[in-house]
Design goal:
It is a single chain. By secondary structure, the protein is an alpha/beta fold. The chain has 15 helices and 26 strands. The chain has 2 domains: 257 residues, P-loop containing nucleotide triphosphate hydrolases (Rossmann fold), CATH 3.40.50.300; 205 residues, 3-Layer(aba) Sandwich (Rossmann fold). Helix content is 31%, strand content 28%. Strands 2-9-1-10-11-12 form a 6-stranded parallel β-sheet, sandwiched between helices. The longest helix is centred in the first third of the chain and has 18 residues.
Length: 503
């Protein structure tokens, strides 16, 4: 960038300290003040993705931050998305489209200059359209082994020439050491860019931390902009599986119990989050066969590596347990990769799922058909209705997005009739087995209520009314933004943005 952006970057002392949530809140606060604000994360590593209106794939956090800012998400907001396919390789998604699969070493060696150019272009595009850019870092800005070719923290703040706020998580302990250690490992020029500190996830009496604030400010010369109390049940979707435990950790004694299989390469687990708004529903994450218990329904979510995760289910004993439950009448839903697993056969024709051309694996066999993995990925927002084949008494509209390599064929029991006339998924006549490529299926309030009432009927408990998720979601954005603003020196944050640009 040849000129300064009006904005700021939020970095953290570690992963999962709350950067994404704080940026989400700041996007809503700036938007509430009448400014056109855009989120930005130059490089995101997550299998939790978001499909834009143009069919581009970006990190889900930036999609939600755009929602909080009341704007349409675009690929400019997350030019580089890395989707792990194994412990050492990731799919590189550039400006919303799959580029290639690289090892970490290969990525650092071959992609760095291209990544810088992409980031620079994205920043220019956003600067042309928006008043303020709210930027988010990743992990820690002082990973020494990666810092010389990093594409997401202080290098990007330098490119955009914006001030930086450092966020520290006091709930995990060691907050003073994490702040001092992070600042000490920054270069002199990088440290000058850090204009404020936020203490996040504070529990207890803030009065007891006043001495701590004074010590931090005296030791660093940097103002503490706020101490944010721990915010229970904020229900804003998390960025990746690091936050999964916290997102679902609060207990509910719902009489309807849904077991969700926690796959090693789970993706888009936010498909499950709508159930947190249903008072009589309990979600239980399952990784081992002994944990499955006796749920009312089982959901197999999406995955970045369908065949690898299917093999995991077989090795762990979950494969046989799930088969047994379904034969005994337990409801089963497979979403995307989970849908693919329900077939009789999975064929990696192009080697895009496992890296082995024509690698074949037997699936659950619940669906009379096969899934074939091709070279090109389908990424698109879709709308439709529950297929008339399902025999529901009323027409139910659904919408969501698809992001998958495989195509599933061979059965004649479709689940969704899309607006373009094509069909998606599988629906067993009993309603007990459903497969679909439609992510965000359960974000559709009417369908979610229909499916849950089927489970309630089988348990002989009362039907529940439809929960309006979209209204609640926007209220949560507003509530969390107000929470952050209340405990933040907001005037100092705004002054920081303006003053830095005028330097």
């Amino acid at each position: 960038m040849n000129q300064k952006l009006k904005g700021l970057m939020v970095v953290g002392t570690a992963s999962d300290v709350g950067k994404s949530l704080i940026v989400t809140a700041l996007c809503r606060i700036f938007a509430n003040e009448g400014l056109k604000v855009a989120p930005f994360k130059s490089q995101n590593m997550s299998n939790n993705s978001y499909i834009t209106k143009e069919g581009k794939e970006i990190g889900r956090a930036q999609g939600l931050q755009a929602e909080a800012a009341r704007i349409e998400a675009s690929a400019w907001m997350n030019p580089i998305l890395l989707k792990p396919t194994s412990n050492q390789k990731s799919e590189v998604v550039l400006f919303g489209k799959s580029e290639k699969v690289l090892t970490g070493k290969g990525y650092r060696q071959s992609f760095y200059e291209k990544g810088l150019d992409a980031i620079d272009l994205a920043l220019h595009k956003l600067a042309e359209e928006f008043d303020v850019i709210m930027m988010e870092g990743a992990g820690s800005p002082v990973e020494i082994n990666l810092k010389d070719r990093e594409l997401v923290n202080m290098k990007v703040a330098e490119m955009a020439d914006v001030p930086v706020i450092l966020v520290a998580d006091i709930d995990r302990g060691g907050v003073f050491a994490s702040i001092i250690g992070t600042l000490e490992l920054l270069t002199k020029e990088e440290r000058k860019r850090v204009q404020g500190i936020i203490i996040n996830k504070f529990r207890g009496d803030p009065e007891l931390f006043k001495d701590g604030i004074a010590w931090i400010e005296q030791k660093t010369g940097i103002p503490v902009l706020g101490v944010l109390p721990y915010f229970e049940k904020h229900m804003i979707e998390g960025e990746d599986s690091l936050s999964l435990h916290d997102r679902f950790s609060f207990s509910k004694n719902g009489v309807v119990e849904i077991a969700v299989i926690k796959l090693p390469y789970i993706s888009n687990y936010t498909d499950i989050e709508p159930f947190m708004y249903e008072e009589d529903v309990t979600i239980r994450w399952v990784q081992h066969a002994y944990q499955l218990g006796d749920p009312d329904a089982i959901i197999i979510p999406g995955t970045k590596s369908t065949i690898h995760d299917l093999q995991f289910l077989k090795k762990s004993g979950l494969f046989e347990r799930i088969q047994m439950h379904v034969k005994n009448g337990t409801a089963l839903v497979g979403i995307c990769g989970g849908y693919q697993m329900l077939c009789e056969t999975l064929i990696d024709e192009a080697g895009t799922d496992t890296g082995i051309i024509n690698n074949t694996e037997k699936g659950f066999g619940f669906i009379p058909g096969s899934t074939v993995f091709h070279e090109n990925k389908r990424t698109i927002q879709v709308k439709g209705i529950i297929h008339p084949h399902a025999g529901l008494s009323e027409k139910i509209a659904v919408e969501g997005y698809e992001v998958h390599l495989g195509q599933t064929k061979g059965h004649e029991c479709p689940f969704v009739l899309l607006n373009d006339g094509t069909e998606d998924g599988y629906y067993h006549p009993s309603g007990k087995i459903i497969g679909t490529y439609l992510h965000s299926l359960f974000h559709n309030d009417e369908w979610r209520n229909e499916w849950l009432n089927m489970l309630r009927q089988s348990k002989k408990i009362s039907y529940q009314p439809i929960v309006n998720l979209q209204n609640q979601k926007d209220q949560k954005y507003e509530l969390f933004a107000n929470h952050v603003k209340k405990h933040l020196d907001w005037e100092k944050v705004k002054e920081m943005v303006v003053a830095w640009r005028l330097k």
